[in-house]
Amino acid sequence: MRKVYSKIQAISGNVITVTASGVRYGELAVVSSRHGESLAEVIRLSEEQVALQVFTGGRGISTGDEVRFLGHPMQISFSDNLLGRIFDGSGRPRDNGPALEENMIEIGGPSVNPSKRIIPRNMIRTNIPMIDLFNTLVESQKLPIFSVSGEPYNQLLARIAMQAEVDMIILGGIGLKYDDYLFFRDALEEGGAMSRTIFFVHTASDPIVESLLVPDVSLAVAERFALKGKKVLVLLTDMTNFADSMKEIAITMEQVPSNRGYPGDLYSQLAARYEKAVDFEGAGSITTLAATTMPGDDVTHPVPDNTGYITEGQYYLRGGRIEPFGSLSRLKQLVNDKTRPDHRALMDGMIKLYAAYKESLEKKSMGFRMADWDNKLLKYGEMFEEQMMDLSVNITLEEALERGWEILADCFEASETGLRTELLKQYWPRQEETA
Amino acid sequence: MTKGKVIGVNGNMISVRVDGEVALNEVGYVALGDKKLKSEVIRIQGDRAEMQVFEMTGGIGINEEVEFSGELLAVSVGPGLLGKVYDGLQNPLPELAERLGFFLDRGVYLEALESEQKWKFTPKVAVGDSVRQGDTVGTVPEGIFDHRVMVPFNFLGEYTVDWVADEGEYTVHEKVATVTDAKGGKHDLTMVFEWPVKRPIKVYSERLRPEEQMVTKVRLIDTFIPVALGGTYCIPGPFGAGKTVLQQITSRNAEVDIVIVAACGERAGEVVETLREFPELTDPRTGRTLMERTVIICNTSSMPVAAREASVYTAVTIAEYYRQMGLNVLLLADSTSRWAQAMREMSGRLEEIPGEEAFPAYLESVIAAFYERAGRVRLHDGNIGSVTIGGTVSPAGGNFEEPVTQATLKVVGAFHGLSRERSDARKYPAIDPLDSWSKYEGSVDYDATEYARDIVFRGNEVDQMMKVVGEEGTSLEDYVLYLKGEFVDSVYMQQNAFDEIDRSVSVERQRHIFAILMKILVTKFSVESKEEARHYFNELRQKFLDYNGTEWMSDDFKSLENELEQQISERASGADEHGEKLLKSLTTEHSNA
User: Fold this and answer.
1) What is the pLDDT of residue B591?
2) CATH architecture for the domain at B446-592
């Protein structure tokens, strides 16, 4: 029987200090107060002084409340029963279903041995042309979606969750607005994807400490499923909230802040989560997409900046569309030569023409005279934005390639596209023109 | 041995009450169940020592036992390092994977060198010979090198050889010689010994100026911003600008004997490419695989942060060890910012007074001391060896004004700054040719390269001006200058890493084609209009790019060169006087060489 301590010596923000012995670093405890029970985690040991981070926050905790140590670190149940369920950051059900307590696993395990990693090789289809065709998502990739608050990044994630060619989805919500949580739940239920999804949701009104657990819990469960051969897609939204929670705790703990108040280990903390993305040879894989809002649309803000150094490219969401410029899937070269012979060429060609369209657009807005070529580009740009970039476009890669050729043929002569003759011969929709 | 008890845990730092003597940077092991976690002493106050743990600290409790080793953090050096993949503490990762599977569990430390493997030993000393630290006792073949078995570097003073093994096959732990010190004490020597990573190896007679060029086969670097053997350089750049790709290209093509790759706190995915590809690629200089000349130290971003701090020291120590054999070693550290951040994390836990951006106040001196471990040296036997260090820097927000970039710039000999604009425009390598600099001498005459750089600079100015006043408002002369600047950039400074030929360009070829480039730059062309000038330069550029893609001195190469010369002379009408003089000295240098 573990001892119960009933003398809390200090309460500061979400961190309480008790005098106790035999406690281990990272161990969990239960704090019982008038307002109910809460889990807490040991975050500092100094002689007999034990500092704990209380998951539901320090508000209302009295110095006379009881602290009971559990003798194990944070754990989460792992089984197929998790599928279709919704939990909070500490693993308690949110959906009125039964609490799960069998087969508990630890979270935040060791990192994968780099020499066991393999070069990524499989594409993940999402039926979103701006991803499949222009910045292909690759199995085991980690990618953030950089966007400004207000952009439909959650809608985008929900669509990816419903359509992505994977075995299962784990959705980690961090500081999610309650409406957004309901939106995700309803969208996935309607889309019939609920049965292959697990939710770990921390909403904006939940205690801040729990948000720190969401990525670890999500990824620990993902890792176990991947080892069992499942292709798992982890969707995290929004990682900026995660970083902000870390900042809050760090300041409470009187850590020296490094950049705009964020703790000095922001990079390591983010990397430890993102690096969980992996392709296990002979088993499954983890692919991570993480919404990261950029405060003030500033990509040099510490959160997107550190994220950019960690991840393998990024998607920029602007004006409700995935921007072709700046967005980059650094692993796409590994897979887009195996899809269709025209994939790479069409991808480059269409983007170059879209860049030219932007220039013409600028010229037009400055009142310069529009040449014939400019008018062609303007027509092309509008069609491209409507039929490719719009997030409502929902077609397979093959259909997107066909549509790409159609758009080009509607706007240009074959020779104006800058594409190689052999490709034009094979794919140009109006063959009489190429002859 | 000294023992201690844990009295505090804070992140990856523990406080320990010790019962005896303890040294700064001494290694200790914290007991955790049946495991022992490696740690290093980083501060001592009375009987209280602060230690950084090289593993995750979850589960450590108060009163846990700590055993001190009496040794500083050290690496094992000896034959068999080449081709190995280590973590920051010299644990061989493939062997760990064999034992543990996918994950890096805590507290498992394996021997760095294979103890079973036999090496063919040839003695180089006789009984009665007098030897001192760093002297060669014998050699064993390792890949294409004769690996020297040396008197350990911590053997001070003179020793007499008492016994030496006959030629034959031995493992690294078998005795190969016995030496006697001045007081008559006997010491057995094996092929392997330990050296503390934080102490530079200084067993040489003098340090030389880095005068010889280190060829990277990247035109922009070798011609304009060269690196010297024994020199230092840094590559700062924002994310996505191609730092790591540039390091990978260098690790493949650099004309050195040995490359040490220190992947420090970066993505594991990037190391994987090197890991999987190097064993397949052939080193053109030796015909063996690239892996045989490479050592990889890999402590990726999700691995424990204290080991990350150690990893760059592990790497530089191995580099210095091979320098003692008269070899040229290149150390590529990617990225030194992650190393600096690891220092910042520890400094924060020690509650030191923070400097700029919370980096510790000693950041600059630590960075300087690290880069100073590079150098070209004359060994006691008269041979010359070198360690060249190239470090990437990942400045926050891509802003070079931050402390790590600035501290690095103070101590390095060359600066290869990557720019987001260039990488966005798909101009690779994305090194900014105007901002970057080098204090070393390159393959091409400095005045001539400056002449070319000046044209790029002025061409760029014209370009800026044209954005305001339009093409109409620019004179034809300025316009041609702009075209020339663009021309240098597109045919010489940019290089196609995916093209079989263009990806690595020998110095000989660089000199040759630079002369042709110079000719185009100094020539005054007779063109009537901007349209015509642009058309002419487009054709020249197409031809030059084709020429870059042909094999050196092949028939295609020669015929394209002729066509180029012809195209130039067709329109030539006089030349810039100063430039012509430079060109002449370039070409005479050629024929002399």
Assistant:
1) 57
2) Orthogonal Bundle (1.10)
CATH value of B3-72 in 2.40.110.10, 3.40.720.10, 2.40.10.170, 3.90.1480.10: 2.40.10.170
When the pLDDT of each residue in chain B is averaged and rounded to a whole number, the result is: 92
- Element housing A221 (H / E): helix A208-227
Q: B348, A255: Cβ pair inside 8 Å?
A: yes
The kind and range of the H/E element at A202 are strand A197-203
Residue A432 pLDDT > 70? no
Spell out the domains of chain A, with CATH numbers in brackets: 4-73 (2.40.10.170), 77-329 (3.40.50.12240), 343-434 (no CATH)
Residue B592 pLDDT: 52
> What ipTM was reported for this prediction?
0.88
What distance in Å separates the CA atoms of residue B287 and residue B276, rounded to the nearest whole number? 18
B373-404: pLDDT as tens digits: 999 999 999 999 999 999 999 998 888 999 99
Coil vs helix vs strand at A191: coil
Q: Which residue of B has its CA nearest to A140?
A: B269
How far apart, in Å, are the Cα atoms of A224 and each of A430, B27, B303? 51, 35, 19
pLDDT at position A371: 80
The pair of structure tokens assigned to B175 is 């005795």
pLDDT digits (tens, 9 = 90+) for A223-273: 999 999 999 999 999 999 999 999 998 888 888 888 889 998 899 999 999
List residues bridging with B579 in a β-sheet: none
Closest residue of chain B to A309, computed from CA coordinates: B239
Q: Identify all chain A residues contacting B96, using CB atoms and an 8 Å cutoff.
A: 113, 115
> Chain A: nearest CA to B536, how far in angstroms?
20
Interface of A with B in 182-241 (CB under 8 A): 227
State which fold the B118-192 domain adopts: OB fold (Dihydrolipoamide Acetyltransferase, E2P) (2.40.50)
Does pLDDT of A366 surpass 90? no
Interface of A with B in 128-187 (CB under 8 A): none
Provide the token pair at A259.
């950049």
The per-residue DSSP string of B455-485 comes to HHHHHHHHHHHHHHHTTTTS-HHHHHHHHHH
CA distance B197 to A272: 26
Measure A193 CA to nearest chain B CA, in Å: 30
Q: Are B557 and B547 in contact (CB under 8 A)?
A: yes
Q: Would you call A103 an interface residue with chain B, using a CB distance cutoff of 8 Å?
A: no
Mean pLDDT of chain A: 91
C-alpha A426 chain-centroid distance: 38
Predicted confidence (pLDDT) per residue in A40-80, tens digit: 999 999 988 999 999 988 888 999 999 999 999 999 999 99
Per-domain residue ranges for chain B? 3-72, 118-192, 204-438, 446-592
Structure tokens at A276: 């969980």
CATH numeric code, B204-438:
3.40.50.300
Assign B593 a pLDDT band (cuts: 50, 70, 90): very low
Q: Describe chain A by its helix, strand, coil percentages, rounded to 5.
A: 40, 25, 35
Closest CA to A221 of A78, A355, A339, A32: A78
Q: Do B275 and A111 touch (CB under 8 A)?
A: no
Q: Cα–chain-centroid distance for residue B458? A: 33
**Mean local confidence (pLDDT), B255-279:** 89
Tens digit of each residue's pLDDT (9 = 90 or more) over A260-307: 899 988 999 999 999 999 999 889 999 999 999 999 999 889 999 999
Q: What is the DSSP letter of A392?
A: T
> What would the pLDDT profile of A168-212 be if each residue is shown by its tens digit?
999 999 999 999 999 999 999 999 999 999 999 999 999 888 999
Neighbouring C-beta atoms of residue A383, cutoff 10 Å: 17
Does residue B225 contact residue B436 with C-beta atoms inside 8 Å?
yes
In chain B, what percentage of residues exceed pLDDT 70?
A: 99
